[in-house]
Amino acid sequence: MGFASFIGNPKVVERLRQKLRENHFPQSLIFAGPEGVGKRTFALMVAKALNCTNAGPADFCDECSQCRKINSGTHPDVFTITVEEEATQIKIAQIRRVLEVLGMQPLEGQNKVFIIEPANLMNEGSANALLKGLEEPPDNSFFILLAVNVHELLLTIRSRCQVYHFSPLSFEEVRRHGVSDELAVRWSQGSIGKALNFDIATVKEQRDVVLEFIETAVHAKDETLREMLNASAELSRTRQDFSGYLGVMAVLLGDILYISEGKTDRVINIDIRQRLDSVAQAAPTERWIRVAEFLRVMESSLKGHINKQMLTDAMALVTAEISNDISTKSR
Ligand SMILES: [Zn+2]
Hints:
It is built from 16 helices and five strands. It is an alpha/beta fold and 331 residues long.
């Protein structure tokens, strides 16, 4: 096993392993990147490498008692600090406990590792308390902060840590995690977490509603205006998870644009490829770009109290041929 079993982000992995080999591992680190790309797994691998009694300095065996205890979450020198049950933030008391342990010698291993996740959920008091620890940690202590977006952390925290960015996995890397459903692979956005929890039935259902709407709108003529507005009304009535539908629409429009631009290897919804092909052909690329831009406007307007059907009506008009006629006539 060891680091070779980690899938994705080979450059980040290699840079950090090099630091382990040189015995120069940074004591305060931030792993930043989307959910489900392996930040926590990799942090635990580092904790194993820093404590393993079998493997060389830049690896771990997964079999010695140190490795096994870290795997089972029972190693007394490896701590995961996270939001406690029924709390919404990492509390200052939790960080104070870290600072107490920091001054002590490791109980069983060679090194203490503190994994803070998600680091952006430390409140201001906790973050300020942590600064003391990050300032001059003892040689045998390491902090690894996990965050989706590094900019959500206080500047004072960031400036004391080395930041490593983890990227979404490629389709191929998601497959190597054992995800066999091709639709799950492609909808995962490179997150193994999303791929494993992919809800095919719900996505297919939403996809049908959205695609029907796009099809009706793109083929609409002046005389079928009513039909188009009916489709719009239907979409806007999906009151539960409207933003979920917009997310599905974003993926479908992405596919339509890929097809339109000939980048067909990137298409996500390969199982409905023919339907997407004929939709893509129904309008020029420029119009699909406009529709995609309009979707972004819709997504940002959702935060306010806005009439959803007004949005979908406008979306339909941008997609429809009529909107083209209108814009041509007004020129
Ligand atoms: Zn080991």
